[in-house]
UniProtKB/TrEMBL annotation:
Subunit composition and interactions: Associates with the 50S ribosomal subunit.
Domain EngA-type G positions: 3-162
Task performed by this protein: GTPase that plays an essential role in the late steps of ribosome biogenesis.
Domain of life: Bacteria
Similarity comment: Belongs to the TRAFAC class TrmE-Era-EngA-EngB-Septin-like GTPase superfamily. EngA (Der) GTPase family.
Positions of GTP 1 binding: 9-16, 56-60, 118-121
Protein name: GTPase Der
Portion of the full sequence shown: 1 to 162 of 459
Amino acid sequence: MTPVIALVGRPNVGKSTLFNRFTRSRDALVADFSGLTRDRKYGDGRLEDRPFIVIDTGGVSGYEEGLDAEMAKQSFVAIDEADIVMFLVDGMAGISGDDQFLADHLRKANKPIIVVVNKTDGRDPDIAAADFFELGLGEPVPISASNNHGVRSLLEDTLAMF
Ligand code: GDP
Ligand code: MG
């Protein structure tokens, strides 16, 4: 079975940057580029001989400020489709209301969840991650998607669960 990983989180936390790392593509539009699709985006990834599928969610225009109803719906569909959910949060910004909203939904979804604390470059990653324990979704994992820190070990640990 090929595991399906959904990337969910409020706009601007780095989902598309991580999607591109996982798929080694420039496929998902990263903020700073224009593009308006709000659909889910599917990509193929591979770690050595292990294939996986990754789903990017949310608006990709880069101009979204909050999690609107359509983006929330896309996230919920992706969560349903996934074998495991990576819930991305912003280690520079801290916990927001949109994070709490998604956390409340994820606590009720009967899926394995990894809280991924992105943008931990420029801070102590473990201290940045510890802030997100209070989401109540287990031990947060620090990464920097743009610097490619922690990305490989996150993926290895995730795929080891299947
Ligand atoms: P999305 O809306 O969740 O898909 O977020 P994007 O992947 O479009 O990234 C939003 C912004 O955060 C872009 O300007 C990225 O370059 C930036 N970004 C993504 N990952 C990191 C990171 O690890 N560290 C920092 N400092 N910026 C990041
Ligand atoms: Mg995006």
